[in-house]
Amino acid sequence: MKILCVSDYIDPLIYSTQAKKNFPDIDLILCAGDLPMDYIDFIVSVFNKPAYFVFGNHDLKEFKYYHREHFSPSETAGNALSALTSQNFRQKAAEHAHHNHGAIYTGFKILRLKQFKIYHPARKRATPLLICGASGSRNYNGGQCQYTESQMKAHLIRMIPYLLYNRIRYGRYLDIFLTHATPLGFHDMDDPCHKGFSSFNWFLKTFKPAYMIHGHIHLYDQRAERIGIYEKTTVVNAYAHHILEADFRKDYINTLKGGR
Length: 260
What we know:
Shape: globular
Number of strands: 13
Mean pLDDT: 86
Number of helices: 9
Helix content: 25-40%
Low-confidence stretches: 70-85, 256-260
Radius of gyration: 19 Å
Strand content: 15-25%
């Protein structure tokens, strides 16, 4: 499976009418945050392939349409009539955002992509591609889509029942973990903004996805590490763009041999 991973930077190689010619045979698009929605729109329209995204800590103009608790007090205050009007507005805004961008939001959600058939040796049959995501970064200035360590872990814990269902139904918890931030001490930096989440380390150790795709850490040096292995998860920095040749069959055969 050939996956186009993008984040943080409007890449002229992608933002081009020649993009599909430059990157043929793309099967799936994963957007790891800090990208304008019109750029995501462009990518979807050019490649015409399934696309999934999370938000970062910038480019958050439409974040509130996907997380209604982030509407301003003026949008939710008032009498019963204004509250009802506000509720209808939020619902329509969310519907507008979901139906007009072409990409599906996967922040703090479990998605089972039945259009992709993944053969799992333990089940001896084709199963859906299993994805979940986590938006945002560490809380460094109180802005939108920023989380403390405990807040992020709480979001991840809420997904556990769905991950357990995956394990029972499909023989594994997860295939791809799509995030903006990084695990703590892995591909991250020391400053408060770019420090990773230790809850991601716990998540990878516990639920063992084959791949983690993240953004947030800009790669200005070609010698900087883009791909690494944490436990048994391949961790990919999607900054600008990266083409991931994902071989899930190989990953799961190796998993079984390793006793995971």
